[in-house]
TrEMBL record:
UniProt record similarity statement: Belongs to the Cob(I)alamin adenosyltransferase family.
Gene3D superfamilies: Cobalamin adenosyltransferase-like
Gene that this sequence comes from: pduO
Pathway given in the UniProt record: Cofactor biosynthesis; adenosylcobalamin biosynthesis; adenosylcobalamin from cob(II)yrinate a,c-diamide: step 2/7
Organism of this sequence: Gemmobacter lanyuensis
Molecular function GO terms recorded: ATP binding; corrinoid adenosyltransferase activity
Enzyme Commission number(s) of this protein: 2.5.1.17
Keyword Phosphoprotein applies: no
The protein, known as: Corrinoid adenosyltransferase
InterPro entries named in the record: CblAdoTrfase-like, CblAdoTrfase-like_sf, PduO-typ
NCBIfam families in the record: PduO_Nterm
Length: 190
């Protein structure tokens, strides 16, 4: 259980932060950027939820919880030493990726195939989900770059890749099952 009785600690005043294993790193390190951008994705998702209801909001809440799991995963390096932690460190599981895939397939079944690229917009929920999509793509790019330098959980990359697809399909659902999608018209303003 997490207990936060004091919010500021002053331990980061010199530009460093602690990772999940206690190691101190620069706040601008790629690992911190990756899990920080996952946190940013979660914040944009909170905005999207202001426009959601019912099963969509429930799914978004599950994803918000997953994003905290993902942040915990990314902030703990040295997967090979997980057994030394004295507890089982939180890692993204293949079942979380599979759940996203199943939900994408379920939503996509209600949609007509795309015949044009779409512009981010339409309903307020769709616009916010497109913002979630782009921020999660940035988190994915940073995580993939981190994986070229350090060991990370491969399910973390898969989760981020599916998540941006989930947001895309959910945005189409939010646009009257794609009927209110804003279509790109190539060369429209030439």
């Amino acid at each position: 259980m997490v207990v936060l009785s004091k919010i500021y600690t002053k331990t980061g005043d010199a530009g460093e932060t602690a990772l999940g294993n206690g190691a101190r790193v620069a706040k601008h390190s790629l690992r911190v950027q990756a899990y920080g951008t996952v946190d940013e994705t979660n914040a944009t998702l909170g905005l999207a939820r202001l426009h959601a209801g019912g099963p969509v909001d429930e799914a978004l809440q599950r994803i918000q919880n997953d994003l905290f799991d993902l942040g915990a995963d990314l902030c703990r390096p040295d997967m090979a030493r997980d057994h030394e932690a004295g507890y089982v460190p939180l890692r993204i599981l293949s079942s979380q990726v599979a759940r996203l895939e199943s939900e994408i397939d379920g939503m996509n079944a209600a949609l007509e195939p795309l015949r044009s690229f779409i512009l981010p917009g339409g309903s307020a929920l769709a616009a916010h989900l497109h913002l979630c999509r782009t921020v999660s793509r940035r988190a994915e790019r940073l995580t993939v770059e981190l994986a070229t330098m350090e060991e990370i959980n491969p399910e973390a990359v898969k989760y981020l890749n599916r998540l941006s697809d989930w947001f895309f399909v959910a945005a189409r659902i939010a646009n009257d099952e794609g009927r209110a999608d804003v279509l790109w018209v190539p060369g429209l303003t030439r």
